[in-house]
Amino acid sequence: MAFESGLAAVVLLVGRLLFGGLVIYQGINHFLAPDAMAGYAEAKGVPAPKLGVIASGVVLVLGGLGLVLGVYPVVAAGALAVFFLVATPLMHDFWAVPDDQRQNEMNHFTKNVELFAASLLVLVLASQPWGYALNVGL
Question: Does 135 fall in a domain?
Answer without folding.
Answer: no
